[in-house]
From TrEMBL:
It holds the Pfam family Glyoxalase_6. It comes from Actinomadura nitritigenes. InterPro entries: Glyas_Bleomycin-R_OHBP_Dase (IPR029068), Glyoxalase_6 (IPR041581), VOC_core (IPR037523). SUPFAM superfamilies: Glyoxalase/Bleomycin resistance protein/Dihydroxybiphenyl dioxygenase. Residues 131-244 form the VOC domain. This is VOC family protein.
Length: 245
């Protein structure tokens, strides 16, 4: 048994507007599975797809108040592409963000609801990831996080040190998942979280038990009676285990 990281869920006060920003930023389209949910995905793409991490934007009443523990890194292919992408994102409503990055070759921006993200300078490792280079998670212990997520998902661990860990789909496609050591302490619920899904035919309850045995814990975020399971990883980052498909 194994779970797949298939999408991220992003909270927003205006799901439609933020969904449109990210669709335009990535060159994707939008759809909706119901009120308060905007789905962002490549036009005509299959779901799920190991080469793509979809985005579900979920309407919530509260605004963002603290720096996110998880952010998106966007890939570029040349210095000109990086400059053009930053300019286009600014026109779409992104704003410069200072998270203490100092003098770095990448550009830190915030989307219209304040979610930080980076537009990276060209890097060989991200040449074939698609528009999203990586999902980056702040953490206290990259080695421990790598152990948990390497066993939780059917992804491959590519690198792990005391300060950084990197995983990618076992099929060698799509964005990377990276854990970076930071001194910041998690406060409140994450504004962005992972959605995992078991494979078709797998047992949802058994997969939940397997994740708990690895160190995940049940988490109440006010979800009520829903078909999916809300858990947290060993550092308290909430994630959802969706039903098999």
């Amino acid at each position: 048994m194994a779970a797949r990281l298939i999408q991220i869920a992003m909270k927003a006060r205006d799901d439609s507007s933020l969904g449109r920003f990210w669709a335009d930023a990535l060159g994707w389209g939008t759809d909706s599975e119901g009120p308060g949910v905007t789905n962002v995905a490549p036009d005509g793409g299959a779901y799920p797809d190991p080469a793509v991490l979809f985005i579900d934007v979920l309407r919530v009443p509260d605004a963002k108040t603290v720096k996110n523990r998880l952010h998106i890194d966007l890939a570029t292919t040349s210095p000109a592409h990086q400059a053009d992408l930053v300019a286009r994102l600014r026109e779409l409503g992104a704003t410069p963000a200072d998270i203490g990055q100092g003098d770095v070759p990448w550009t830190v921006l915030a989307d219209p609801e304040g979610n930080e993200f980076c537009v990276l300078e060209p890097r060989e490792i991200y040449r074939d990831t698609g528009p999203i280079a990586a999902l980056v998670v702040d953490c206290a212990d990259p080695r421990a996080m790598a152990r948990f997520w390497d066993e939780a998902m059917d992804w491959t661990l590519h690198e792990v040190t005391d300060d950084h860990a990197r995983l990618r789909s076992a099929e060698g496609v799509g964005p990377y998942l990276e854990f970076v050591r930071t001194p910041d302490v998690k406060t409140g619920l994450n504004r962005i979280h992972f959605d995992l899904r078991p494979y078709a035919g797998d047992d949802h309850a058994a997969e939940g038990d397997r994740l708990r045995a690895l160190g995940a814990t049940d988490t109440d975020i006010g979800q009520g009676d829903v078909p999916w399971t809300v858990l947290s990883d060993p550092e308290g980052n909430e994630f959802c285990l969706l039903t098999p498909r």
